[in-house]
Amino acid sequence: MAKAVGIDLGTTNSAVAVMEGGQPTVVINSEGSRVTPSVIAFTKTGERLVGQIAKRQSVLNAENTIYSAKRFIGRRYSEVQSEIKNVPYKVIAGPSDAVRFEIAGKQYAPEEISAQVLRKLADDASKYLGEKVTDAVITVPAYFNDAQRQATKDAGKIAGLNVLRIINEPTAAALAYGLDKKKNETILVFDLGGGTFDVSILDVGDGVFEVHSTAGDTHLGGDDFDKRIVDWVAQEFQRDQGIDLRKDRQALQRLIEASEKAKIELSSALETTISLPFVTADASGPKHLEMKLTRAKFEQLTADLVERCIGPVKQALSDAKITDRDIDEVILVGGATRMPSVQALVRRLTGGKEPNQSVNPDEVVAVGAAIQAGVLAGEVKNVVLLDVTPLSLGVETLGGVMTKLIERNTTVPTRKSETFSTAEDNQPAVEIHVLQGERELARDNRTLGNFRLEGIRPAARGLPQIEVTFDIDANGILTVTAKDKESGKEQKITISGSTQLSKDEIDRMVADAQAHSDEDRRRREEVEARNHADSMAYQVERQIQDLGDRVPLNEKARAEQLISQIRELVKSNSTDIARLRQLTGDLQQVGHGLSSSASSQQGRPGGPTQQGGGSGDDVVDAEFTEK
Amino acid sequence: MEPTEEENRPRDADDSAQIERLKQELKREHDLHLRALADYENYRKRVERERATVARAGKRELILAMLDLLDDFDRALQHAGKAPLSVAEGLEALHRKFISLLQAQGVTPMVTIGEVFNPQFHDAIGLVESEEVAPGAVAEEVQRGYLWGDEVLRPARVRVAQ
To answer: What is the DSSP string of A40-81?
Structure first.
């Protein structure tokens, strides 16, 4: 089965994502990165380089390194005069006013260049997935005309891809948030990337998106914000030291990188330090740069850039003949939308609406394209949305603790079995108390049901094997079965609606468990210490019985003394764990002594039936209380 | 079954339509099942492959940050001549210690000057006139590059001879 991928073919960078098990995943390229520069180079030796590698040699080979091919794709030569001025490679007129790049005497159409990028993305995706990729959905800006869309599609064909569909970037972003399921909503997509700004207003109804208006600024993006930091730092440094760092290419390069890092840090921190030791030197010696930049100062430096976003948003709203009150959803796209000042502006312009931003804004377009690809390839349409159990499920075991069989957030359908045993000699029945919740003690959790499995044949405690199975089907219906392995007797209970708690209820129960976690853990430890002590007392008692008069009298007396002390503490529900553990340890020593002095050891009860390998220590943890 | 108006219709046609529908449904379900299994299998394989690289990726991030610090250190040493000899010697010893720490992790500096420019290892930031090296070879190193085993940890930032 060939996979269909979603490709965000960008002006500067591209990304590819794919559906896996009904979930979109961004592909990591062969260089280990989640984005690939949309750059192609033809070297003097006739080699073709794509992506990061092509970018690294661009200054040496500028006339044969093509970037921003997206600005030319599907356009006429006569339309792109202003773009040609910005690029170092040769752009010429081809047949019927088509755009051609001339590289080493050969002509290439923009779609041939974009095809190279698409090919690399598809190859990287194949390598990542371990299976061939042939089908793709490719995104284009909403303002692309038919010729630009057709040319993008052709680029896909040249790359050997079966282009399932060309979709709009804002539509892809909306798909990534599942907004196609909404009925008659108006969506504003705010896309501030590295160098371009786009606003789109979409309508969705019956799973169909319609673009109502687009506006933007082709020369506004995150890079402009970096430049403001560079200029500010350089000016401050010049004032203090009298040296203009912008004239020192090496220092400038370091400053540009440090400024971008500072910008990113200020999205989460209120203050950052730009530190460039030995940034430059003059006759008096080396100079260091160390400057604090607060978020407030950064916002002051970039306030006009943020303000420049207002015009296009208002334009888009008025073109769509709506006001901010008509917007139902807002989506943020592009890394620059991580800046708090940009987010605040978006809120202000959209009537205080909380924007969708849970999907990585650098990847949201590729993710949406992958979802569309999954739908078109028939993968998504029929995928059953798998539910999870919102809370843990388990049974009550000895000492009133809850033993979890299915942890919360386990994807259903699921099935889990565990073998338990009895807590008393000749116990004829076990009580299965089915619990839901996160607390350690049974009484703090929710009871889903109760039943008894009777007719267990008389046996020493710990010997009977009771297999308890929890099975949750795809509809969230829980069936708990208890089976006595020896007699084959079985009892079961079916509980529906175990996953149908309200979100508030679930949140409350989880928060409750967190709030009480220390106290609960202590209680559970107490119970476990008592269980362990009781089990040890039982084992040693049995040992003494089994060994009879082979036990030296003094050791027997010592063991019996310890056993009675332990029993007293257990009976009084003592919370003195330290003392219990001490006594249990002592008794264990005595027990070991008994078996070695009697040379043949036998009659250790319980062992094989238990979970966790059945060592004596684990025996009691999972036993049922008899009620 | 409750009697319905539909009982008057020929049962055979009804049944075969039903069978056909169920067959289709079964086919679809079977296909989905296989897809899910395949997805899971591929996912499992990839997670296994990635498990080895995850630890390395975490380390990589830390080493890259340390290289940044080493660059600063290199710059500092260029000015160490003006410091008292004992201080300069101490700084040099620190520098060697830093480098050997990285070497112990398999990190080695690239030798670039005089090598033919190769974008796999070199990030070109410009061209220069050079008498020492042949045209197309690396003439100046602006920022040292590092290898981590066979992997390029950080390409060297270089100027290339015209």
So the answer is: EEE-TTS-EEETHHHHHTTTTSGGGEE--GGGTTT-BGGG-H
Helix axes A364-376, A169-176, angle to 10 degrees: 80
Q: What is the Cα–Cα distance from A324 to A317, expressed in whole angstroms?
A: 7
How many structural domains compose chain B?
1
Q: Residue B68 falls within a domain, yes or no? A: no
**In this structure, which amino acid lies at residue A209?**
F
How is residue A372 written in tokens?
A: 């569309």
CATH number, position B120 = 2.30.22.10
Separation between Cα atoms, residue B103 and residue B109, nearest integer Å: 9
Length of chain A: 627
Q: Name the percent of chain A in helix, strand, coil, to the closest 5.
A: 40, 25, 30
A456 with A487: CB under 8 angstroms? yes
- Per the CB < 8 A criterion, the answer to whether A230 and A253 are in contact is no
Q: In A, residues 178-217, which contact B (CB 8 Å cutoff)?
A: none
Q: What is the pLDDT of residues B74-116, one digit of tens each?
A: 988 888 877 888 888 999 999 999 999 999 999 999 999 999 9
Q: CB contact, 8 Å: A45 with chain B?
A: no
Distance CA A235, CA A104 (A): 43
Question: Does residue A413 have a cis bond before it (omega within 30 degrees)?
Answer: yes
Contacts of residue A20 in chain B, CB cutoff 8 Å? 39, 42-43
- What is d(CA A319, CA A212) in angstroms, rounded to the nearest whole number? 8
User: Is the separation of the CB atoms in A37 and A55 below 8 Å?
Assistant: yes
Question: For the segment A337-391, what is each residue's pLDDT rounded down to a tens digit?
Answer: 999 999 999 999 998 999 998 999 999 999 999 999 988 887 655 444 456 677 8
To the query of whether residue A560 is one of the catalytic residues in this protein, the response is no
Task: Give how far A57 is from chain B: nearest CA, Å.
Answer: 6
Strand partners, A187: A202, A329
- From residue A47, alpha-carbon distances to A43, A54, A615, B17, B123 in Å are 5, 10, 66, 60, 17
DSSP A76: B
Asked if the model's pLDDT at residue B139 lies above 70, the reply is yes
> Checking DSSP bridges between strand A446-453 and strand A271-282, what pairing results, if any?
unpaired
Nearest to B126 among A59, A277, A278 (CB): A59
Instruction: Please give the Cα distance from A287 to A277 (Å, whole number).
Output: 7
- Over residues A517-533, the pLDDT tens digits come to 888 888 888 888 888 88
Q: pLDDT band for A285, please (50, 70, 90 cuts).
A: confident
Contact call for residues B45 and A130 (beta carbons, < 8 A): yes
**Would residue B112 count as lying in a domain?**
yes
Does position A566 have pLDDT exceeding 90, yes or no?
no
Residue B115: inside a domain, yes or no? yes
Structure-token match 């710059």, residue found: B75
Question: Chain A contacts of B28, Cβ < 8 Å?
Answer: 382
Q: Grade residue A497 by pLDDT with cuts at 50, 70 and 90.
A: low
User: Nearest Cβ partner of B32 from A56, A281, A382?
Assistant: A382
Structure tokens at A113: 């260049």
Q: Is residue B101 part of a domain?
A: no
Residues of A in contact with B120 (CB under 8 A): 53
**What pLDDT does A495 receive?**
83
> Could A277 and B76 be called an inter-chain contact, meaning their C-beta atoms sit closer than 8 Å?
yes
Q: Residue B119 and residue A57: Cβ atoms within 8 Å?
A: yes
Contact A21 B142 (CB under 8 A): no
B160: domain range? 106-162
Is residue A414's pLDDT more than 90? no
Helix (H, G, I), strand (E, B) or coil at A599: coil
Is the pLDDT reported for residue A482 higher than 70?
yes
> What pLDDT shows up at residue A238?
95
Give the closest-approach CA distance of A242 to chain B in angstroms.
20
Q: Which of A489, A406, A492, A395 is nearest to A447 (CA)?
A: A395
Residues B114 and B122: beta-carbon distance below 8 Å: no
